[in-house]
Amino acid sequence: MEIKPYLEEQRRLVEEYLGRFMLPAEGDFSRLVEAMRYSLFVGGKRVRPILCLAASRAVIGDASLDGQVMPVACAMECIHTYSLIHDDLPAMDNDDLRRGRPTNHKVFGEAEAILAGDGLLTFAFELLSDPAFAATPAEARLRICHTIARAAGPLGMVGGQSLDMANEGKDIPYDLLRTIHRSKTGALITAAVETGGIAAGADATQLRALAGYGNAIGLAFQIVDDLLNVESTTEQLGKAAGSDAEAGKATYPALLGLEKSRTMAADAVAEAHRALESFGESAEPLRALATYIVERKR
Amino acid sequence: MEIKPYLEEQRRLVEEYLGRFMLPAEGDFSRLVEAMRYSLFVGGKRVRPILCLAASRAVIGDASLDGQVMPVACAMECIHTYSLIHDDLPAMDNDDLRRGRPTNHKVFGEAEAILAGDGLLTFAFELLSDPAFAATPAEARLRICHTIARAAGPLGMVGGQSLDMANEGKDIPYDLLRTIHRSKTGALITAAVETGGIAAGADATQLRALAGYGNAIGLAFQIVDDLLNVESTTEQLGKAAGSDAEAGKATYPALLGLEKSRTMAADAVAEAHRALESFGESAEPLRALATYIVERKR
Q1: Inter-residue contact B7 to B50 (CB < 8 Å)
Q2: With contact defined as beta carbons under 8 Å apart, do B52 and B192 qualify?
Q3: B-chain residues near A82 (CB < 8 A)
Q4: Are A158 and B130 inside 8 Å of each other by CB?
Q5: Does A122 contact B153 at a Cβ distance shorter than 8 Å?
Q6: Can you give the pLDDT at residue B61?
Q7: Which residues span the domain enclosing A90?
Q8: How many domains are there within chain B?
């Protein structure tokens, strides 16, 4: 399948629903909501929501459940966006640019950026538990909440960010690098795929396959991100290139070298394809997405 | 009833469960978890969880559901604690002291404090959706999630904090002051009472009564907080006294004067008592709590 037009079409679909679900920047809290909207709508590939939708369609074979899966997909994007806002803060990575535009705190100030992140994280759970989306059984929705909270929480994304920062500029062993990335970026990507499956009523075997796929592409995604940071220009990336090396960050290329890192990313994609063996035609977009991850340029 | 021994006993009960639910500070993410635990266990009155438990007992008449309500009560305290950590940050209120001890960022640094807050907020939803607490019907648990997310989110606590900061040092009308406090502190207090009721299977009339009670004590609580900031010493408060005036914050005493503020707080407590008229003996702790709020010294 042609991945580029598919991604573009899916990105638009996700953004349409994000626009529908997200609060309007009006009324008493318009300034905060404006800051939330700024980062949510500044662009982005919408990889996590697209994965979530694709996983649900792989399970049921068509897009008929999209309306029910969209709150989950959009909650994923809210959480991803909050994590970017907080990661960019002066106290954290201190980045001025994100997706080619000034970072949230550069536009709204540090305090509002912290709150915009807090607001997006909380809003994600508001969306997941919204009574308007009651078509999905309550048990499945609770399980989705729990899967996402675990993946985003102290033993997942937040823990990974803390561990990453604590080890900046240090020589760390490969196992620790894996732990950092599995928690910091891998957990949420895996959760996107798993929760798409849960929303579509996947059985235990299907969920295991989807989780295996998610883990593999999560790893591939991170390695390629590290590689791009070394090999691209700032213009290509839309954020500061070479910033990892400058910050003394532990990365796959820094630890294993460029060649070995490329091989590992390719192996992970092969593993992702293997994980989906029991799925038929309906998982084609998930397969194409895995391949795209290693071939992307930003 | 004797409120002081009741509060002490309830505080201990809540802390016992907090200790049981909260992650141990060990393993890969021990530093982050340590930062989360520092602020969670540094002390505090545990007002929100105590209200949550008291509301559930008012509905069913005894403490037999405590085990099921505790995850909700403890999630409330996690969210309250996260909000204090973020509010204290240099970019926000820049406070060095909280509950008589150095604030989170003073001990763990700004980056870790931001993440500790993020971790506590996310962990709250992990707790609320934890499959271990499946005795409460899934529909009720989703409704609890939603009530808490709304109260803590951009149209609730986070929105209130943003609005509060945007109006620092400004002369604001009374309506705006009410909106700030209703969202910043009132919403979560009301949610504590409501979700205790939902967990106990309260009907619509009971929930309306509990929400009315929650709104009234939320207002009383904030007015008294403002009054204490003016009238107490730093030693009595365990945080910097007079800091509101110094920061040019809009407060009830600043806007209405001390006398009128005291009257308003007393009126709100009377309203809280009226809201509970349909409840019998079992709501006695809620009534005593309302009275205690205006009489407390810190």
Answers
A1: yes
A2: yes
A3: 118
A4: no
A5: yes
A6: 96
A7: 3-295
A8: 1
Mapped onto helix, strand or coil, the DSSP state of residue A249 is: coil
Nearest CA distance, B289 vs chain A (angstrom)? 28
Query: Residue B234 pLDDT more than 90?
Result: no
Within chain A, strands assigned E span: 97-98, 101-102
Which DSSP category does A82 fall into?
Answer: H
Q: Residue B257 and residue A121: Cα distance in Å, rounded?
A: 38
Strand partners, B257: none
CATH number at residue B279: 1.10.600.10
Confidence at residue A241, expressed as pLDDT on a 0 to 100 scale? 67
Percent of chain A with pLDDT over 90: 85
pLDDT of residue A235: 65
- B149–A179 CB contact, under 8 Å: no
**Is there a contact between A129 and B143 if contact means CB atoms under 8 Å apart?**
yes
| Two structure tokens written together for A118 | 């807090």
Residue B208 makes CB contacts below 8 A (sequence gap 6+) with none
Flag the least confident range among A133-142, A275-284, B214-223, B289-298. Answer: B289-298
Residues 6+ apart with CB under 8 A from A280: none
Shortest distance between the Cα of B182 and any Cα of chain A, in A, equals 12
pLDDT tens, residue by residue, B2-15:
999 999 999 999 99
Using CB atoms, which residue from B92, B119, B153 is nearest to A158? B119
When CB atoms are compared, the residue of A91, A114, A149 closest to B122 is A149
Instruction: Report which secondary-structure segment, H or E, holds B216.
Output: helix B204-231
DSSP category for residue B23? P
Q: Tell me the pLDDT tens digit for each residue of B178-228.
A: 999 999 999 999 999 999 999 999 999 999 999 999 999 999 999 998 999
Cα-flanking dihedrals φ and ψ of residue B213, to 5°?
-60, -45
Q: What is the pTM of this model?
A: 0.95
CB-based contacts of A114, cutoff 8 Å, min separation 6? A86, A89, B86, B89, B91, B92, B114
Q: How far apart are CA B119 and CA B22, in angstroms?
A: 11
A-B C-beta contacts closer than 8 Å? 168
Maximal CA-CA distance, chain B? 54
Query: Which of the residue ranges A13-27, A135-149, A161-175, B16-30 would you say has the lowest mean pLDDT?
Result: A161-175
Global ipTM: 0.95
